[in-house]
Amino acid sequence: MTRSIVTNLFSRFWGLLAVVLLWDGLVRWYGFNVIVLPDPVAVVRAVFTDWRIYGYNTAITLTVAVTGLLLGSLLGTVLAVMGWVSRVVSGMVAPAALVVRSVPFIILIPIFSRLLGYNLTMVVLVVTLLSFFPSFVLVSSGLSSLPPAAVDLGKVFGATRWRALIHIALPAAIPGLFASIRLSASRAVLGAMVAEFLTGIDGLGKLFLLARGDLESERAFAAALVAALAAILLVYFAERLEAAIQRRMT
Questions:
Q1: How does pLDDT run across 119-134, given as a tens digit for each residue?
Q2: How far is residue 237's CA from residue 25's CA, in Å, rounded to a whole number?
Q3: Distance (Å, rounded) from C-alpha 91 to C-alpha 187?
Q4: CA 139 to chain centre
Q5: Please, are residues 76 and 128 in contact by the beta-carbon 8 Å criterion?
Q6: Contact between residue 179 and residue 99 where contact means Cβ atoms under 8 Å apart
């Protein structure tokens, strides 16, 4: 049992292990100063030394990321459904969604900061806009991929378009929704951390900003490490949720 778990972990994360070993080897070979490039042990030590600080800021970043991810997925789903119900709405929503997706989200952060203030609501909004497009695309794809015979059969039995949406179209689009959550999970953590970094709002981004300003590279790397682990954890749970939904749908 233990051997299979270790083998599974190694097969999934051997690339990450190789990067850590290469990192440690470069630090030892070139003798980098800790300000320039700390070794992995120093970074891990920084996390465990200030675990309360990292835990508090990780909780903030993850809460914001998950909230924005769920709101973005909901927004994308609602827009996709509106586009499926009405071709007129589809003609309006699809170009607008593409425009929002094309604008680099980092540009929106100063604008939202001015409008909403430097608070967690602004960060949630940034993550929401960052997360909505995959759900919009995948849910729209699920809705449009319905066999015409399925909708026609519903009409034969007297189903209105709304009943066809609820009983036929939405169940077909649910797998796409959870796939979009998985795809957006890591980007949600990234978006939250970038917003915190640029605005100084509490979270891992601010922690990275302060450590970098104080030339404490090991703490800055520690913040990046914790953020990476948080993103991996969020993606893992999103994958498990997607797999559970797929098993239930089949």
A1: 888 999 999 988 888 8
A2: 33
A3: 27
A4: 17
A5: no
A6: no
Lowest mean pLDDT among 118-122, 146-150, 216-220: 146-150
End-to-end CA distance of the chain: 29
DSSP H or E run through 100: helix 87-102
Name the pTM for this structure: 0.84
Residues contacting 148, CB < 8 A, separation 6+: none
Of 187, 183, 185, 221, give the one whose Cα is nearest residue 204.
221
CB atoms within 10 A of CB 53: 15
Backbone angles phi, psi at 38, to 5 degrees: -75, 155
Return the structure tokens found at 243.
């797999």
DSSP 215: T
Q: From residue 194, how far is each of 113, 116, 204 by CA, in Å?
A: 13, 17, 9
Which amino acid is located at 182 in the chain?
A: R
CA distance 186 to 184: 6
Q: Tokens for 129, please give them.
A: 């806009």
102/104 Cα distance (integer angstroms): 6
